[in-house]
Design brief:
about 250 residues; mainly alpha
């Protein structure tokens, strides 16, 4: 919950700040041409749950891997709609919000009512990791790097640095962890690529910036899918090095 609320809250704060400087139609000139509040909120708000789960399982961090259930709710348009709605930046029909959250709530209800279902689907979680990776790879269009240019790369690096730093601090000082899980959540989900047009369908105010936001988000997905694992491994190694060695007591009697 710390990572979930922290990621969404950080995206909301950045969205509110950006809305004071960026017009509704996005920036039109200069290096930041194409950047919009929609792009900023979506890249920061959407976490790649599959990548997070793979990293935590690979490192043998089963407790941190359990956060996957919450982090996965950030993938898709629902949480981005909620962020815009809560901050007052935009409004969406309640039917649209309900349609995006019903499958998640249904899974929660069935999993808590039926232990057999919970056990069945719980065992499937590790098996779906290769499918996450495969589907993510199929959504990465390297042409988007050209379309969004250096701006998209800049945004992707900013996601890892800004959200990674904030989640690292929240994980360490609020959740009492070591910060590794926070850094592992500093990515942009592949599902975020579909968010701009999904939001534009629900609210026409996003239509003018949907195309440019999609290019920036797609580039951020590529950049963060490369940088987030590197940053997570680096932080994890530093964390292990800082831990004091175990004291061994020898009884000579």
């Amino acid at each position: 919950m710390t990572l979930l609320i922290g990621k969404i809250g950080f995206a909301a704060v950045l969205g509110l700040i950006a809305s004071q400087f960026i017009p509704d139609e996005g920036i039109q000139t200069g290096f930041f041409a194409g950047l919009s509040v929609l792009a900023i909120v979506a890249v920061m708000n959407e976490t790649n749950g599959g990548l997070y789960l793979a990293l935590m399982n690979h490192m043998g961090r089963k407790e941190d891997a359990g956060a996957f259930a919450f982090i996965s709710t950030e993938s898709g348009p629902f949480m981005t709609m909620v962020t815009f709605g809560v901050t007052g930046l935009a409004a969406f029909p309640w039917e649209t919000l309900a349609a995006t959250v019903i499958p998640f709530l249904l899974g929660c209800i069935l999993g808590n009512l039926d232990p057999d279902l919970r056990d069945l689907f719980g065992k499937v979680v590790p098996a779906i990791i290769p499918f996450f990776a495969f589907s993510l790879g199929n959504t990465l269009d390297f042409k988007m790097l050209v379309q969004s240019g250096l701006l998209g790369i800049f945004v992707g690096v900013s996601v890892v640095i800004l959200s990674g730093t904030s989640l690292y601090l929240l994980d360490k000082f609020i959740a009492r962890g070591d910060g590794v899980a926070g850094v592992a959540a500093s990515s942009t989900a592949g599902a975020a690529v579909a968010v701009p047009y999904a939001l534009a369908d629900a609210n026409p105010m996003f239509a003018p910036v949907a195309e440019s936001a999609t290019a920036i988000i797609a580039t951020s997905v590529i950049v963060t899918s490369l940088l987030t694992p590197l940053a997570t491994v680096w932080i994890e190694k530093r964390t292990r090095q800082r831990k004091p060695p175990k004291q061994i007591t020898i009884d000579y009697k």
